[in-house]
Amino acid sequence: MSYVKVAEKSQIPVGAMKTVKLGEKEILIANVNGKYYAIGGRCTHKGGDLGKGILEGAIVTCPRHKAQFDVTTGKSVSKPKIPLSKPLEDEPVYRVKVEGEDILILQE
User: Fold this and answer.
1) Whole-prediction pTM value?
2) Which side of the chain, N or C, has fewer Cβ within a 10 Å radius?
3) Under the phi-then-psi rule, with left for phi > 0, alpha for psi from -120 to 50, and beta for the rest, what region is 73?
4) Neighbours of 50 (CB within 10 A)
């Protein structure tokens, strides 16, 4: 396991998000009050691109059906606005480290 550079701080200002690829995984990096968090980049409901959603504080809203996740924990905080065919799962969480201007994620 090692940390891999996925972005630079200038690419993700406070209140912004960016989707990056790490191997086969799509990972959403969010800057909440100057601290960086990383969760799965695809909604666990129907695979919506969370990077195209809206970040309000620490909550990202999926653009497809409005499911919401806390980017600091990966926890689902609001169900989609359409009936679920399966339970909504939490997003995976990834370890983030900042070195100088580089944002790194632990690759497992």
Assistant:
1) 0.92
2) N
3) alpha
4) 30
Total structural domains within the chain: 1
The β-bridge partners of 91 are none
The boundaries of the domain holding residue 85 are 2-107
- Rounded CA-CA distance 102/5 in Å is 6
* 67-94 pLDDT, tens digit each: 999 999 999 998 877 766 666 899 999 9
CA contacts within 13 A on the Cβ side of 2: 2
Using the structure block, give the residue that is written with the tokens 């620490």: 58
Q: How many CB atoms lie within 10 A of CB 36?
A: 19
Q: Which two tokens stand for residue 56?
A: 């309000």
